[in-house]
Amino acid sequence: MEQDLQAFTAEVRAFLDRHAAKAPDRTAFTWGEGDDSMAYFSAETPEVERRRVQQARDWQRTRHQNGFGWITGPARYGGRDLTPIHDLLYDAVEAEYDVPDTGTLSVVGLGMIGPTILAHGREHIKDRWLPAMYRGDALACQLFSEPGAGSDLAGLETRAVRDGDGWIVNGQKVWTSVAHHSQIGLLLTRTDPDAPKHRGITAFLVPMDAPGVEVRPLRQMTGGADFNEVFLTDVRIPDDHRLGEVDGGWTVALTTLMNERATVGSEGSGPVAAALSPQRLAALMRATWTWDDRALRARLAELLVDAMATGHLNALASRKLRAGITPGPERSVSKLMYGRNLTRAAHFVADVLGPRAIADTGQWGTYAWSELLLATPALRILGGTEEIMKNILAERVLGLPKEPGVDTRSPFRELRRSGAGQGGTE
Amino acid sequence: MSVSTDSELEELRAAVRGFLDAKSSEEAVRKAMDSTPRFDPLVWTQLADQLRLPALTIPEEYGGDGFGLVELGVVLEEMGRVLLCAPFFSTVVLGVRTLLACGDHEARARWLPGIAAGRVTATLAAAEDSGSWDAAMVSTRAVPSGEGWTLTGRKSFVVDGTTADLILVVARTTAGPSLFAVDRGAPGLSAEPMDALDATRALARLNLEAVPARLVGGEGLAGRTMSQVLDTASVALGAEQAGGARRCLEASAEYARNRYQFGRPIGSFQAVKHMCADMLVQVELAEATAREAARLADEGGPEFPVAAATAHACCSRAFVFTALENIQVHGGIGFTWEHPAHLYFRRAKSSQLLFGGPAVYHERLLDRLGI
Asked: Could you give phi then psi for residue A196, rounded to 5 degrees?
């Protein structure tokens, strides 16, 4: 195994050396020079964003042409038939290179929805969409969360009702990344409200250009709109677009969620990595004459301990990976720490800046941090709230018992809910 | 230096755990805490004879097995789990690391083979009443006397200071802080145990009145030696702390699974569940920093001093946090003398503060980062 992984790594390197340059050291910088943006979410014009999505598609096509489009996928659909370890290894090596960010395609579509279609789709759906997705032609989004179903996804209320050889869908989805660029969406609907909540859900693949599908940008607290709301009004979906059994959609959803992965070592990339660079934080303290403030120095040290400890955890996971061992709980811990570290860094810097964090004086590298400050609350919520992550760690790693609940046995219709689908006032 | 594979490290861990399960039960720990000396000399002999642990990190040319901090870390994680009472940290960490860092071949050749064979125990007497391990803060004086030196002053917080055969003392000459070797039986030396928060690690105060001593390494070089020793000792201590923290987590998780209140296991309540998850996070980080720092030390990586300071801070916090939360998860029973939770809290707090505590180690980290 280890030999095979070494050969694979060499192949990946050879490919990347041919098609990309090594990534620059993003933590190296000189105070007052270069881009001082600290935006976690994009603050781009639609035009720039479209260009980025195109670059991502082009890079995915290049990967695909060189055998890295779908490392774990079956050859029949353009895959490589290798293991998840190869996949993670590819990511770890690629992180060393300066390549377009393919997050819009890969995180949800290729990482989660592709494997779900493969496991639960009919043949004609797989033939039609899988090669297109991994070639970079088709983007996919995940129509899961609803206003009334966040952490408790199985409480979703979007309704699908039988109509001859198809279904009519009505409802609303929210926090849908990439919906406005997507050709298809993986949709979860309620088909039997009289069954317990996990047993009345059905999954479909819905073309995003189907009549009745409306995508509206959702403006988040930073002011930008990185996510969408998706409204479904009398959308007709043929039954052959169903994934899995009728009322068996929870199994489909689990396949999707199981494929959600924390990318190992990803904390080192992107402009936000600079937020945790000791040199950058030290330079900021010098520039603001807070260099010898003992209280701030102690906070800086605490912050750096956690940032570096998280880095060591990722390094350990990468090393395990190279030895062919699938990383364990350290991946969930990394995700928790990533949000925590960035949040603490943003608040530390704000406190160092004082009034310069609340209004722009025009000084380089100061007010720019307010973007990160506003973005960090999301990091404790997206991809599973901190509370849900802790439940998972406690239950799956430490074997603590689940909270006994009434909600898994009663009919869905009888559950108390706080959703928009209950006919509230307009 | 020998380097172990992952499976060899696991074999080492299993062997040490098997030994400690048999020799360092909670009952044995409590017995040792009340004994003089504060360890079982028979267990120490067996540790040397059966597992050769004192020899582990001593180079082969001095009769040792030539392993590095990675292997030492595995051993210390296991010792930390069970709060082993033994002069291992003083001898193998403080004593051996000081001799290896001092640059004095003659001193190494004189002392290391005895340590490797388990016949000699050692310690480092650096701190004085202020508790600082900074060599520049030392006021104990050394003056030339015949072919050797004599030392006068007072040392505190000396780990196993009443029992160590070899005491490495930091004292000031006209050239600055220097390192000296003192025999336990030397005239003018008296050692008394200090009343200590953690009875599983004996601390002593030494009074030195014109005690004959032998210079180790060059005059005025103790500052540099101490800096290296503190780096490696921090990592070693970090491994011990990580082991203790892991044990506290396991104890809490087990209790949370089995203790029923309100008709259900307390671990099914989110408040308790999240405490345990927070402990797990701290333990994972602690193990990662201690293991990565040990690896960097053995590879001679330039990032080692920063990693060592990180491990010291991270493992200190993790152990104190998990030891405290462990008491909280256990509730009232966790506050009793009979329950072992307080033994871990005592060890955790003492280990955190032994080399100076947060104010010192935070500045040390910033210093290593050039901030």
From this structure: -55, 150
Percent of chain B topping pLDDT 70? 100
Beta bridge partners of B261: B264
With beta carbons under 8 A apart, name residues in chain A contacting B264. Answer: 401, 404
Name the β-bridge partners of A161.
A168
DSSP string, B27-48: HHHHHHHTSSSSS-HHHHHHHH
pLDDT of residue A423: 39
The reported pLDDT for the residue numbered A265 is 41
**Low-confidence spans in chain A with pLDDT less than 70:** 1, 26-27, 43, 261-272, 419-426
Q: Which residue has the tokens 């032609």?
A: A137
The nearest alpha carbon in chain A to B367 belongs to A301
The CA distance from B284 to the nearest CA of chain A, in Å, is 7
Q: Which amino acid, one-letter code, is at A307?
A: A
Per-residue b or e along B311-336, where b marks 16 or more CB atoms closer than 10 Å to that residue's CB: bbbbbbbbbbbbbbbbbebbeeebee
* pLDDT, tens digit (0-9, with 9 covering 90-100), for B95-153: 999 999 999 999 999 999 999 999 999 999 999 999 999 999 999 999 999 999 999 99
Judged by a CB distance cut-off of 8 A, whether residue B267 touches chain A is yes
Which pair of structure tokens corresponds to residue B281? 């996070």
Determine the straight-line distance between the first and last CA of chain B, rounded to whole angstroms: 33
Residue B358 CB burial class (10 angstroms; 0-12, 13-18, ≥19):
middle
Non-local (6+) Cβ contacts of A423 within 8 A are: none
Peptide bond into B193 cis (omega under 30): no
- Dihedral sign, Cα of residue A230, residue A234, residue A240, residue A246: positive
pTM: 0.93
Query: What is the pairing mode between strands B166-173 and B122-125?
Result: parallel
CA closest to B371 among chain A residues: A282
pLDDT at A420: 46
Would you call B280 and A313 a contact, using CB atoms and an 8 Å cutoff?
Answer: no
Q: Which portions of chain B are predicted below pLDDT 70?
A: none
Q: How many CA atoms lie within 13 A of A95 on its CB side?
A: 17
- The residue among B146, B155, B141 whose CA lies nearest residue B219 is B141
The CA distance from B291 to B176, in Å, is 35
Q: How many CB pairs under 8 A join A and B?
A: 123
DSSP helix, strand, coil percent of chain B (3-state; round to 5): 55, 15, 25
DSSP A196: B
- Count Cα atoms within 13 angstroms, Cβ side, for A297: 20
In this predicted structure, what is the pLDDT of residue B87? 98
Name every chain A residue with its beta carbon within 8 A of the beta carbon of B370. Answer: 282
Give me the active site residues of A, please: 260
Q: Which pLDDT value is given to residue A270?
A: 57
Given its phi and psi angles, is residue A354 left (phi above 0), alpha (psi -120 to 50 degrees) or beta? left
Centre a 10 Å sphere on the Cβ of residue B50 and count the other Cβ atoms it contains.
11
E strand or H helix at B150: strand B148-159
Do B252 and B279 meet the contact criterion of CB atoms below 8 Å apart? yes
